[in-house]
Design brief:
Distance between the termini: 43 Å
Oligomer: single chain
Number of strands: 8
CATH topology: Rossmann fold
Number of helices: 7
Order of helices and strands: EEEEHEHEHHHEHEH
Strand order of the largest sheet: 1-2-4-3-5-6-7-8
CATH class: Alpha Beta
Shape: globular
Helix content: 25-40%
Low-confidence stretches: none
Mean pLDDT: 91
Largest sheet: 8 strands, mixed
Radius of gyration: 18 Å
Structural class: alpha/beta
Length: about 280
Amino acid sequence: MKDLSKLKFPLNEKFGLIVLSNNVKYEFILNIKHSDKLLVIGSGALPLDYREKFLNRPLFHRISWEFENSVIYYNDPTRYLNKELVGGWGLGTLENWYLNEISNIIKIIANKIFKYNNEKEKFKNIIIYGSSMGGFMSLQLSILIKNSTAIAEIPQLDLCEWHYWHTLKLLFENLDITEIKKKFNYKLNIMELITKEKYIPNAYLILDCSSQRDFETQYKNFFNNLNKLPFTENNNVNKIKIRIDGKNEGHKQLSKPEIYEFIENVCLIIDNSQQDKNKKNDCE
């Protein structure tokens, strides 16, 4: 970790990166380009049929996709902690929240490849995308990496209500659910992390409410609590944008062209927002 900022990255080619921190290996695939934006892409949960194949191997969904912008694909090492896991949702151990460490690594890399003018502009060019488990982690990362933007497709919003909770609770050893929520609910629930950080992320949620399981266990309670979002002096606008699809295909991601288009549109929104800000500054 201490040597990461000193590395020289190759340009315009995919390369692997392993960062050792607190005796945990964090694995990444990067493709750094001459671009003004950085995409961060996470993986969804493993299909059960692939669990044995990837027991001790990193997982990088969409690794074959090509983007004009720089890209970081990250693996979640939580899955290595227990062979029953099909995904780890970045939870890590009781002492070490792996997703927080991944966010720190991403910030070091971004600081290395971009020259930010000031703290207020820092990380505004980072777009974090994922679906399902990756959507959950995208939202969490966008809260931890302030100013970044999340695109979260069919994400989980409360892991205690998700159907894989019976395996995820193995990570909390012998704690009962009351103790887990009291000590670690910010790792498990998007609204709880927003409250803890007192920060509302820039986020686009793509939800399919025709999935009854997702609506009943994840979305409905989140909707009910939107009016309780914490407001702070410097961040008093709800910046969570929700798109509701009714494609009637259950818990299924959008097609590749649709995802490409959505990411491109978010890039345009970020650019237009920056241009509007520059025009305002010129007028002043």
